Amino acid sequence: MDLNLKGKVVIVTGGAGLAGSIGHTLVFTLAKEKAIPVIVCRSDRGYGYEKQLQDMGLDSIFVKTDLADHKQVETAVNTIKKHYGRIDAIVNNVGVNDGVNLDASIEDFMNSLKLNLVSYFATVKYALPLLKESKGTILNIGSKVALTGQGGTSGYAASKGGVLGLTREWAVELIGYGIRSNALIIAESYTPAYENWMEGLKNGEQKLQDIKDKIPLGNRMTTPQEIADTSLFILSDRSSHTTGQFIFVDGGYVHLDRALLPKN
């Protein structure tokens, strides 16, 4: 299916993650559809990804940005505006489950909000004039933690809850401009960061299996590619009448009653 994304300028925050991460996979899946992914991230990996994208014949750029600093976000959006003169979509993907819990300082909690929530607001705020011109699309990457809790991560949980609130709020506020706003919610996805976490646990292999056993569809984790594929559909005009929605790509993890499912 042609998603009609060719030539569309798509900002991906946190797009310079490790190879195989959700951000990295999103960027290069967009590239395969001939969209123009613009990486906004603090990691220097972005320079290498920029070269790879340009070698593919795409006019993609990397704008190194500390997304926790709204002034840097404003500068990044201005750079993109100057380079392209348009923004067709934003994927607010940046996020760190930083473990800021009730024992953390207020400063740590606020810093968690700045990266995981305020960056979403700032990116959309500064890009909004161009989004209005293009009747663009906003996709916020969310987490099951906003709905289920996790324990020991108040900053991240509050941020991801806020992301869902912003998603619906923007869908209402921007509907008159033809701008769609949706959230894609992830539960357990086997990314390089997840793998590193498992490898650091004494009983990591058993922990991983226990998690997989709790995922109803296939007793396996969601792949970053599955997340990217669904994201592109939501961004595309093939999903042109979808707004204000929370789309779960989680193998039924959040909603299905696992006690009633047949055992393999």
CATH fold call of the largest domain? Rossmann fold
Principal-axes geometry comes out as globular
**Largest sheet: spatial strand order:** 3-2-1-4-5-6-7
Head-to-tail CA distance between termini? 34 Å
Structural class: alpha/beta
Mean pLDDT: 95
CATH architecture of the largest domain: 3-Layer(aba) Sandwich
Task: Give Rg in angstroms.
Answer: 18 Å
Helix percent reads: 40-55%
CATH class wording of the largest domain: Alpha Beta
Number of domains: 2
Strand content: 5-15%
Question: Number of helical segments?
Answer: 9
Low-confidence stretches: none
Largest sheet: 7 strands, parallel
Element pattern in H and E: EHEHEHEHEHHEHHHE
Total beta strands: 7
Explain how this protein is built.
- Helix 3 (70-84) runs parallel beside helix 4 (106-134) and helix 4 (106-134) packs parallel to helix 6.
- It is built from 9 helices and 7 strands; from the N terminus they run E-H-E-H-E-H-E-H-E-H-H-E-H-H-H-E.
- With 264 residues, it is an alpha/beta fold.
- Helices cover 45% and strands 14% of the residues.
- The chain has 2 domains: 9-187 and 222-251, Rossmann fold (3-Layer(aba) Sandwich), CATH 3.40.50.720; 192-220, no CATH class.
- Strands 3-2-1-4-5-6-7 form a 7-stranded parallel β-sheet, with helices on both faces.
- It has helices at residues 22-32, 45-55, 70-84, 106-134, 145-148, 154-173, 192-199, 204-213, 224-235, and strands at 9-13, 36-41, 62-64, 89-92, 137-143, 180-186, 246-249.
- Strand 4, helix 4 and strand 5 (137-143) form a beta-alpha-beta unit.
- The protein starts with 8 loop residues before the first strand and ends in a 15-residue tail after the last strand.
